[in-house]
Each structure stands twice: as C-alpha cells, then as structure tokens.
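ENTRY TYPE: paired fold submission
RECORD: A
CONTENT: sequence, then structure tokens
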Amino acid sequence: MSARKSIAFSSVLLGLSFGWLGCQRSSSLSSVVPGVTTSSPAEQVLQRYHQDLTHLDSAVALLHRAVAQSQPLRQQRQAFLAARRAWKRTEMLAEYYSPSTAKLLNGPALGEVEEFDQQQRIHEPEGLQVLETYFYPEPYTPAQQPKVLEQLAFVRSSLLSLHHAAETLSPTDSHIFDAARLEVFRVMTLGVSGFDTPASPGAVPEAAEALGTVQATLASYQPQLMARQPRLAARLDSTFRAVQTFLGHSREAATFNRLQFLVAYANPLSQQVWQAQQALGIPAFKEVRALRADAASLFEADAFDATAFAANTTERPTPPQVLLGQQLFFDPVLSGNGSRSCASCHQSTRAFTDGQAKSLAFAGRGVVARNAPTLLNAALQRTQFHDGRVSFLEDQAAAVIANPTEMHGSLATAARLLSRSPAYRTAFAAAFATEPSAAVQQEQVKTALAAYLRSLVRLNSPFDQYMRGEPEALGAAAQRGANVFLGKAKCATCHFLPLFNGTVPPGFERTEAEVLGTPAQASLHPRALDPDLGRGGATGIRWQQHAFKTPTLRNVALTAPYMHNGAYRTLEQVIDFYDQGGGAGLGLAVPNQTLPTDKLHLTAQEKRDLVAFLHALTDTTGLGHSEPRRLPQFPAELARLNARKAGGQY
C-alpha cells in the first residue's frame, strides 16, 4: 500500500531533461518575441509558452496583492487556485526544459537532504505546494503572513529563471510532440491522483488546464494533419473536446471517476497524439529511456525498457545470457556451502518471495535482516534493496552472494568453481562470445544474473488488460477499488501508475523512499517503532532514518507478509495501517514521517474494493516452469556437486 505524499530523499536531480541538448538555441539565433506571429508550428508553440509565462506572472502578482492586502480568505484561495491553474498552462514545457526550476515552483512541501552533504543540512521546500499549506485545509494565521509573502517571492524568483531559460529555446517538432505526450502521461499519473494538490481541491480543473495546453499545442499542427489524415485530425479534435467536457462535468475531486477518465479519455488521447506524430512524419527520439520515446500508451505491453535502468544501456541482454542467468539463479553452487541459491528466498511459485516475515539465514542460523521482496519487475526501478543502497541489479546480485547471512559466498570463488565445469564454460562462451576454454569472469556472473532478473518483467495483469480495452478483465469491485486507490486513499501518490512502485513518472528517473512509521509488530496500538534505520542506516543521514524504498504493488496479493520487516500478514492489515495515518497516526513518535498522519476514513466497503483491485494487479505469466530441470554438471573430481538440488536445499 501507499503513502499519500511522496518525497525523494536522494540528492537533488542534476540530470538533463529529455532532448535538452538537441534543442538549445545557438547564440547566433535571436529569441522568439512574444506577440510576433511565426511561421512554423514549433515557433508558435514557443510563442504561446512565453505568453503563458507572462500570464503566470500576473496570476502570482494578483495572489501577492491578495495576501499583502489581507483580502478575505475566499478571495485569497481563489487567487491561489488561479495561480496554480496558470502554472499548469506552463507545466508542459517548464517540466520538459527546466525540471529543476519546475521542482522549485511545484515540488513537494517536504524538506530534502543531499546525500553528499556531510553537514546534513535540510533544504527547506518552496513553491506552490508550500503555499498550499497556508491556504488548505486551514488558513494561515496573521502572524504567518510574512512567511506567505516570502514564499511568493521565491515563486517569482523561479518564474524569472523560467523566463530566462525560455529565451534560449528553439524546439523541434520532435521535442514538441515528445513534451506533449509526456504531459498527457504526467496528468494521468500525477495530476489526477492529487500528487501535487494534496490538500487543495484543484486536481480536476488543473488537469483540464494542462491538457488544454496540449490541445493548443497540437492545434498549431492541425492544418498539416488535416491535409494528410483528415479523419485522424477530426478524431483527435473530438477526443480533446470530449476530455474537456468530461473534466468540466467532474469538477469535484472526491467524486471524480479517475478510472473512467484514464481508460476512456486520457489513454486514447495519448495514443492519438502518437498517431498524429507518425502521420506528420515527425520522428521519435532514439535514445534509451525507461518509458520508450515511441510508447503511445503507458499501458502498452512493451512501453518500458528495462535496459534503461541498467548501468550500461547500450548492451541489451541476449537470450543465452538470460538462460545462463536462470541457471545461476537456481544453482546453489554460488553459495558458501553449496546448499543455498537465490531461489531459496525468491521462489518463483510465490512471485519470487518466500512467504516468510524474514527469510531463514545462512546455515539456518536465525533470520536475515529484512523481508524478501518480489523480483518481478525489480528491473523497473532505480534503486535496489529496501534501503535503496545500490542502483543496479548487477550490484544487488553481488551483494547478496557476499552477504554472510544470505548466501555467504564470493563471486571470485564462484567464478573459479564455474570455470571447472565444461558445461558452464560452454554456456558462458555462448552468452558472452568467448572461447569455451576461457575462464569464467566475475563480471560475467553478475551480468548473467542481472539479465535473468531483467527478463522477469510482467505487465499483463487484469488491470493492464482492462486499460488496453478489455472491459471484462476487471470486475465491478476492482473498478471501484481502482478509484479508491487513485482517489480517496491516495495510494497512487506514492505507488505511481503504471508500475505501481516509487519510480516517479513520466521520466521514471528516480525511485523514492518514504518514512511510514512501520511498527515492530502489527497492531493498532503499537508499542514501538521498528528499529531498522533503513535508508538512514545506509547513508548516515538522520532525516532518512526509517525511510524505505516504495516497493511495487504488482503481484502484491502473492507476496505476504508485508513491509520491510514482514510485520503485516494480510492486505487488510496494511490498509488499516494507512487508514490510521501510519505509525505517527497510531501514536508512535516519528518526527520525520513523510506519510501524512491524518486518517483516511475509508469505509469497510472501500477497503474490500481496494483489496479486490490489488488482487487485479497479479501477473505471473510463464513462471510455472522457471526452475531448470537439471543443472550443469561438474567433472569427476567435483562429483559431489552433481548431486546439488536446483533451487537449493533450504
């Protein structure tokens, strides 16, 4: 289940936005002047962006005046909501070209600590979401007025940065369509879930504004599209009008049918935007991305590229590497005593978990530190382990093999032992294009294991089928539960669509961690917080203590018990925990909890529907025969190893 407001504990993103280098204006070109009509559609879009930034300036100025003059609360709130809607009209290009500034303008109202900062200074949040806390749910006090005005000054400073950045832009048609489709995805995954409107009532009107910008953007290409494919042009125009009509009739976030919006309006819209791009002959970018640059829908079976999450994105896993990795995964020869394999704790029949709160430790000496997470879709996240201490599956495999309580082995020892098996040498030669006589290398072992793990992507659950146009795939209870998940329970503000983990859309460039206040034992009257420091233990940062990576909810019906410590044995218990506001809501002292402590007030029916929806996220296609029938053999001098059991002894 999910926290209801996410915050990244990782360092502030320094990465470049999509396509940034390809669309910087050279110094020899003059900038587009607002108000001057230009000939190309891309220039028209840029001109509109300048105008929208100016409108945002005006909206913020009006909000500043309302606060400075102590106007009635109703007027101040109206001015605030108007400023947020004005931001949404600029969001498409602001997020695309200036993501760091966009984060300052509209990032979560929670502090951050940069992991390289030895002084552990908390960077206080700023921007529109901080301003929201002064207007909703309760208004600020007169004594807080200077703080509100200070935040408005921060917003105006960030706006100035956006203006300066806009003067340097010269986007191509490819950039425009890329940004447009990503904005549709942003609305689908973050906007309608209330990710950036946790307290104010503006999620639906803001979605209308954001998609209105996409509509205005594509209007610049409408004459060309009409000339090439008039039916598609008419269909796209009709879809835009239908989207706005639906949003206009559903202004209240509490009653908004998010599932219907996604399946009947937003998903077809993203597909038609891509069709229009193809019809116009505008190429998609070729760069490797988590969400493919040519993905027409978030819910396509192959929308995501697991290679993008790897350290080396230029070499894709080959079938021989995957097959070799599968053999190694089930082979106890990698462990220190030759009796334990990766599959000992990650069993394919249990969605690659083991059904234990904490797995049995090496040689049966107690238990390991944390619950065994599923490996299904583990390739589609930016960090590994509950504490996110490594980034790549290759490093995760190496760490597990070396861990004295898990496999208590050594990659170097394993590579030497595997080199003594002619069958394994042949398999490694086929996988890595080497000679069969060549010794097995440690890097090859890691690469093969990671290749197998990247093959465990499963995105064809009943929910996915429903989103792809199979209405019978999702029952009535699960449909109601989807709306609870996306709406009242706010699960989707941390377990983001469509991966249902903490990897933030639409760029999927970072995976978030949360402080939930998980108790040591399941109880509605817990006595103690679980002592595991989580991310804070890995980084040494106090503010990250008890933070854990937001895991995937795909196949969650099969992966009990839950949480990093396996404290909760049922989904119903987990839902009750969130319904009460996490650990702090249950009375524990959790000063850095990122999960809001207020209660959700879910009804018994809503909880049952939510469980039904979570069951609809199950997809274990093709996993029934994951375990190899036999393992590669060793020569006579190592005959004792030939009796080893695939999957290990315990």
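RECORD: B
CONTENT: sequence, then structure tokens
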Amino acid sequence: ALSATLGEPVSMLIPDVVGVRLTGRMREGTTTTDLVLSLTKALRDYGVVQKFVEFTGPALDILSLPERATLSNMAPEYGASVAFFPIDEKALAYLELTGRGDQVPLVEAYAKAQGMWRDDRAEVVYSDVIEFDLDQVEACLAGPKLPQSRVPLSTAPQSAEAAIRENGGDPAAEPADGPIHDGDLAIAAITSCTNTSNPSVMIAAGLLAKNARAKGLTAKPWIKTSLSPGSRAVGDYLTRAGLIEPLEELGFHIAGYGCMTCCGGSGGLRDDIAQAIKADNLSVAAVLSGNRNFEGRVHPQVKLNYLGSPPLVVAYAILGTVLKDITTAPLGDDADGNPVYLADIWPSAQDVEAAIRDNITQGLYLDRLSRPEDANPMWDDIDPGDAGAFDWDDDSTYIVKPPYLETARRQVPFPGVEGAAILAMLGDNVTTDHISPGSRIQEGSLAGDHLSAQGVAPADYSGFLQRRANHEIILRGAFNNPYVQNEMTPDRRGGWTRYQPTGEETTIFDAAGRYAAEGRPAVVVAGTGYGIGSSRDGAARGPHLLGVRAIIAEDVERIHRSNLIGMGIMPLQFPAGTTRKTLGLDGTETVDITGFGGTITPGQTAQVRFTKPDGTVIETDVLCRLDTAREVAWFENGGVMPYVLEKFRGANAA
C-alpha cells in the first residue's frame, strides 16, 4: 500500500493459479464462517502462499456475493496473494440490490471483455485444482491461536484443555473463588470485515439472540460483549428486522463500525477480571467472529482465542466457557426450569432466508447512501489546516515525526553484513502480531513506561495500532508481544534476549540499543511461516528501528517479505531441509552474510557464516528473497521511501 501511495509499481513473480472447485451444498446448522474456516485449514495444508486462488465449480450457484466475499476475504489467513470469484449474474444482482445498478452495464461489459466473466463452458487451465465438497463442512471454531487450527464444536473443550495445560494450568482442578476461571470467556465479540458484512450470519446471530431471550436466557455477566459491524447498513437491517433489541439484551450493543476486537481494539477488561487473570495466571478465552486470533492480538491477557460464526459468538456468551461441549451441554434453563440447548435456539435456514428477504432491500441501501453526512461527524469536524505540509505537534504522543529517512541506509554497492549479533531466534508461525503487537498497551510495559514518562495516564494508553504513527511506541513494542518465545531465553516469554558476547539476559530493546552504540548490526533467525498474519507495516518498521539488517528464516510470508524490503531489511531463506536446528544454532553465534560482490541480482544465492564463541564455523547457502529488480532497487536505497525521495531529487535536478 505504501509503495502504491508513493506512485511505485508493485512487482511480483508470475504466480501459480490454483482452482478451488466447490461442490455440494451446506448442511443445516452450518454457516459460511464454518465454510471459510474449513477452507482456511485445507488451503494452508495444501500450500497456497504467493499463489492466486480462483473459486470455481457448481456450488457457486448457491453462494451469494457476501458469502463469496467471506471466502475471498480470508486469503491472507490461508496465505494466497489473492482469492477471487469470476463475475456473474449474482455479482450484478448485488450491485442492483445495493443501489449501484447504474454500474451494471459497465461491469458486465468489462468482465466479458477481460475474460473475467463466469463461463462454465470455457476450458480454464489452472496450475492445480483442489476439490472441496461443501457437504463435508461441519460447525466449528478455529483456535486457540491460529486461524487455520480448525476445531469441530464437539472437540473444542479438548482443544481448550490442552492449551490450558500448555500454559501451566490444570483444567480438571477445582476452580478457586474468583470472578473468572480457566476456560471462561472474558470476551465475546461479533466483529470484523469478513463476517459482519455477510447478512446470512448476522441475521442468524440476531435470530439466535431473539430465540434465546424468548427462552429467558442471558449472557454471563462477567463477559465483555460487543457488536461492531463492517457497515452501517448492518445496523439498519438488524433494526428493521427487530433483532437489535434481543442482541442488546444479551450485551451485544453496537460499539462502532469497522475493525475493533479482531485487530486488538477490545479495550480493557473489568478491573476485578484483569486482576484475577494476573494473580492466578489464568487461561481465559475470547470467542469472536473475526479473521485473526494470533497470540496476544485480541487482548494481552486472553490466552485462548477462538474464531467462530456470529451466532456461535452469541451462544458462547450464554454458555460462558469453552470447557463445555456447546453441542450437548445446556446453555441454561428456561422460565420453567427446563434445560435449553443450542439446537433449541439455532435458527433454521428458512428463517434466516425469510428475514433477509423481508428486511434487506434496495431501499435500505439507497436510504443509507442518501445520508453520507451522518457517517462520521467527528471525522468531518477535524480541521486539516491550510499549510502545504503537515504541521507536526511536538507535544503529540500519537503522531510523531518519524526518523525513517534519517535511519535508512543506502547500500550501493552492497558489501554484505559483517559481525552481526543474533537479536532473536524464533520458531515457526511467528506472526506480525508477535513482531509488532496491535493490542492494548499494558501498564508496566516498555511502551507504557514511555507514555507515562510523557505524562500519559495508564487509562489513556490506548493500543499499539492507535499509536502506530509514534515510532517510539513501535520501537518499544517490537518483538515485545508477551507471548513471543525467543529460543535464546527458553524460560522467559516476551521481548527478552541474551546480549552477546556476555550472555547477559536483557530486553530486546536494551540489547538492540547496546548493539547500535557499538555499531554492530543485528539479524533475526526463524523457522517456517515467519510474518504470517496482518500486513502490519510496524512489523518491518520496528525491526528496522532495532537495527535488524536481515531476517534468516525457512520462509517469509508474502506481504511481510515485501514490507521488510520496503524498510531496507533483507529477507534470506534457508534451503529446503536446512533450519536453525539442523545447523545447531543457539543464538550465541556471530553472523556474516556474503556472496554479493557488491552487486545484488534478483533471487540470487548468498552465503551465511555462523561463528560460535569457540571459533567453530557453520556455513550455509541461502536464497536472497529480493525477487525482482524493483525490490533490489528499493533495498539498495535503504527502502521504498528513500528510493522515491531519490527519484524526486533526480527529477527536480533535471
């Protein structure tokens, strides 16, 4: 996005295109969320990183455009560069429904001219084809810390029990007195772009809430509940259908429109809840309808994070725990003392379809589109000023003039990297949330202490994402997610490392500062799946500020790889079969990166030499993941921003 904003072309290697042929029909009691979580696991298992995915097959006939969008929108979670459906009559019907019928002739003509119109008679050649039967999809969650970790509802308790044991707890122990216990929900959130813009699951959530209230059920009082639709039209049709009231009675009030809990905007927990979690080292849960559930993302104190459909979010808020089988355990009792089960309140597909048909009309969308002035008066009231450039406020703790043009390092000719320290040695599936948290800033953290020193009260710390334009916060958050595990400090999680050569245990922030004072570069070594998750640019800016010159990993996720290059950090990939473990690395090594001869060519092989304190040398070839000439140019200039600035200077000089 930064590259495009600066007018740069986005280059890539021509990708494989994988066809996903959808057949069959969804079973009663399953939702599009169950389908996309099942697809996410299947496509991660197959491997579609840096590939295009095109959905095809007869099941397209029964998938609405919002349902198709649900499947495509989780492309980052299953690793694809893009996932798309061919344009057809259903897409045109959606444009008509949402008040954009004037665009239909152009869209249809363009799609047909470009070969993007759905034509089941045409012979389409894919790099490979995956068959996926919708009949096999069952109700499920995904978690407790990866979107691809699909868990059938009936086995969710076993998943939670295993995670609690992994965190040092005992799910079988008698709960101590307190407001919350292991496995209890702390957060239940209907949130994110993927599910809250899909009427079928939003209406289902409202109908389930209505049925639950008719049975006298309530949400557990200690759970933080919220509803944050992706569009104001969602609030409109839930109100029209009479479903907002039962949702609100269960605590699901509209908190706003857009990314919230899914991106770490869950806010604080009740004081007694937060204190109990900390005092007893509890493993509490969140169930949310978002895309992502990486460690520490939803809330720093919530260790078990499960993705599920909006109606399941409501049901779990009533049940109150992930340690019970929601398919067989009673959610509560009705007014006569009879147990009420999930099946008793789950809405039928016919009821959902009827509510959609009766309440989601073109008039609803046209009415919303006719009132743009109601969208966000607070945003509209901001005075941008009339200066030619941004007027930096020296007292701001949110927007601070960044140093990135000053810290960029021009690297032409590129001499390699000499005498680097290993700042962190990380395992598999290190997410961008591990590298650069997006969650609420905690009191006593490096970022929190910095804000306190600036006169900010803990209640006003807000979150890392809200302060992402403050590089001092990005710097102090880098690799400082409380759940990140540096293998150099196996007994301590969070942003810790060992300063070399003394082996002293210290924070990554402190060690990086000491290396910088010595003029010593740093590198990070990791396993497979480095940088999965959000495209978060802070996950490249933070390491840059820490002095990291290269990431050496088994593989680097597509978007993060590009962001690293954009900040002048070189992504290097171990050859197949070679890992930090097969090389016997422990983080005490000094690292030299050679083999460039001053000139970098796209996709070239380089050499890395690891020298242990006793003088033992371990060498390996690595693949330099600067894949295109444009990426080489960005890297050599220290990143995309200095590259563009240099172009501006050249143009002005001419």
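NOTES ON RECORD B: The first helix runs from residue 2 to 5. The two ends are 28 Å apart (CA to CA).
STATUS: closed
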